[in-house]
Amino acid sequence: MGQKNLLSIIAVLAVLVIIFSSVYTVGEKEQAVVLAFRKISRVVTEPGLHSKLPWENVEKFDRRLLTLDSAPERVLTGEKKNVTVNYFAKWRICDLKEFYVTFREGNVFNANQQLADVINSQLQIEFNKSTIEKVVSIERDTIMRNLTDETNKKVRKYGIQVVDVRIKQIELEGEVLTSVYQRMNAERETVARGLRAEGEKRARIIRAEADRKAVEIQAEAGKRSERIRGEGEAQATRIYAAAYNQDQEFYAFFRSLQGYRNAFASKDDVIILEPDSEFFKYFNASK
C-alpha cells in the first residue's frame, strides 16, 4: 500500500469521524441540551436527526412525567396534632435550560430534593389550616389541589412543572388515633340515632295511614253490604207481594205452614191457644 493510499484512507476516516461527531438524534421521549465548552449553546426539543459542531457535546433528558415518591413526612394540623403523611408527585421538565443551570447540570436527584422541600413546606401550610377530621375525609381532595397549584407556582422558576401531587396515606399517632376513633364513633352513633328516629317517625306515619285506609275500607264495605242487603230485602218483599197477589189463599196457607214449622220445631215446645183460634184455621179446615 502506497503512502498516498494510506493518507487517503486516513483522510476518509477523519471525514467520517467529523461527520458522525457532527450529527445526533433526539428521540420522541427526549429533549437535549447542546453544550459548547460546558456552556449551553442551545436546547433541542424536536425529535429527529440534528447537527452540531464537532466540539459541542449533547446531553439528553426525559420529556415524560417523572415521579417523586416521598418519604413519610410528619406535619401538624390546626389542632396541633401530629400526623404522618405519605405522598407522591408527578412532574416534568418544562424549561430545560433553566433546569440544567439550576440543578448542577440537570441533576434529577437534586431536582427531586428541591421539589420535596417545597412540597413539604406547602404541606405544612395546608394542614395548619385544617383539622384532623377534615384532612382525613372532607378536605383531602382540596388539599391535594392546593398542593399541586401552590407548588407549581414556586418551582416554575426552576424549569419544573408539577402536574399532580397525591396524598397516599395519612397515619394518626397514639392518642390522636384513639381520639379520632372515639369522635368518629360518637358521630356515627348520632347519625344512627337520627336515622332510627326518622325511621320510627315514618313507621308511625305509615301505620296511621294504613289504619285510616282500613277504617275507610271497612266503612265503605259496611255501606255497600247494607245497600245490598236493603236491595235484597226489597226484592224479596216484591217477590212475596207478587206471589201473594197471584194466589192469596195459597200464600196464606204457605205462611201458616211456616208458622207451624217454627212453632213446633222442638218436641219440648208448648203452645196454649183456643181450638178455634185463627192460628189453627187450616188444621180445622183439613177436617
What does it look like?
Strands 6, 7, 8 and 9 form a four-stranded antiparallel sheet that branches. The chain has a three-stranded antiparallel sheet with strand order 3-2-5, covered by helices on one side. Strands 1-4 form a two-stranded antiparallel sheet. The protein is α+β, with helices and mostly antiparallel strands. It has helices at 3-20, 96-102, 108-128, 132-138, 140-155, 174-246, 248-263, 281-285, and strands spanning 23-26, 30-36, 39-44, 48-51, 56-62, 66-69, 73-76, 82-93, 160-172. Strand 2 (30-36) and strand 3 form a beta hairpin. It folds into four domains: 3-62, no CATH class; 66-172, Tetrahydropterin Synthase, Chain A; 191-246; 248-285, no CATH class. The mean pLDDT is 81.
Summary keywords:
single chain, 287 residues, alpha+beta, Tetrahydropterin Synthase, Chain A, four-stranded antiparallel β-sheet, three-stranded antiparallel β-sheet, 8 helices, elongated
Give the integer mean of the pLDDT values: 81
Terminal Cα separation, in Å? 175 Å
Superfamily (CATH H level) name of the largest domain: Band 7 domain
**What's the total number of strands?**
9
Question: What do we call the CATH topology of the largest domain?
Answer: Tetrahydropterin Synthase, Chain A
* Total number of helices: 8
Helix content: 55-70%
Order of helices and strands: HEEEEEEEEHHHHEHHH
Structural class: alpha+beta
CATH A-level architecture of the largest domain: 2-Layer Sandwich
Low-confidence stretches: none
Provide the β-strand percentage band: 15-25%
CATH class of the largest domain: Alpha Beta
| Most strands sheet | 4 strands, antiparallel
What is the radius of gyration? 53 Å
Shape: elongated
User: How many discrete structural domains?
Assistant: 4
